[in-house]
Amino acid sequence: MTSRTRRVEGTKIVQSRAVSAILATAALLLTAGCSSDDGGGSSAGATSSPPGGTSAPSSPPGRSAEETPPAKGSVKVVRTVAEDLDSPWGLAPLPDGSGLLVSSRDEGTITRVDTKTGRKTELGEVPGVSPAGEGGLMGLALSPDFASDHMVYAYFTSASDNRIVRLRYDERRPAGEQLGAPDTVFRGIPKGFIHNGGRIAFGPDRMLYAGTGESGEEGLSQDRKSLGGKILRMTPEGEPAPGNPFPDSTVYSYGHRNVQGLAWDGRQRLFAAEFGQNTWDELNAIKPGDNYGWPEAEGTAEEAGFHDPVAQWSTDEASPSGIAHAEGSIWMAGLRGERLWRIPLNGTEASADPQAFLEGEYGRLRTVASAGGDKLWLVTSETDGRGSPDGGDDRILELEVS
User: Fold this and answer.
1) What is the reported pTM?
2) What residue stretches are annotated with the Glucose/Sorbosone dehydrogenase domain (predicted)?
């Protein structure tokens, strides 16, 4: 286990929704500023349940989708899978469990990590990536038909926008030449030095979801014609998905600040993590067509027309990026907070106070993904320009959770 000397903020109890409402209202009166962590140190979340069957690899039998998890859980670091990764961001486990595809935000490359040996093989560089600030090569997702089409989807910042492309992965080719030419699936997402969003995932309905940021222009979040500050839902070809809440639009939910975490629970309900600004990060349960408040509301507002979060944190405790669902809980990686949060669920509500693990032990945490059953993959983020790298950073860890 890595030893770190950096000072870690003490864990605070997450406020009750009633107290949160008072504090959030007061916070809205403060002068707006921006924290130094991926668009302001905090997160906003979402919920909702898209139709369809899961496209993720099947998991071993575990906790029932109906069963409420215990108030307290546990985390065990099983092993370090890989070390010495450069600005890792997106993570896509291969369906057969043999490897993990990892994106480098700043290098614009995708690397395969062998899950047994940790051996790293660079697949190639994604053309057109223009890294700067919080932008670069970010989220990865595998096609629902990956076994037959071998398509890898990638979200990245180009010279003009944020976009999603797909590339064919051919492991028979030499290292560094295993990615085919990119096919642009979706373009026109606003880019900025900050708040580029970047997480993509195929949902249980086999549709592609993308979390975007408002690129530092707050007004975009409430503009339903803009792609900034949204969760988008589209077909694998980039068209508005059937059943979307707004006609001929990929917009699925709006009023977001900077979404970097997407995950579905055992009943196919969508949750999202979002960076707040100065006061509250959020975990949200996403409902199609709902308004999550930014910039009029940060955290719990209890105002008509705004969907309040499932849970919220002060920005120095979280700054959340990736999330995953396992053992009846959402697990949320914290950047500025340098900890892994467990949020036990009862439906779309938190069934107990969130619980923090690994505080300060591995530094900034970027991505967490299901490894099946009670296992998770966790990616650190010390080499992104805002961390304090130790020898071996950045890492991928295997966790056992309950």
Assistant:
1) 0.88
2) 85-386
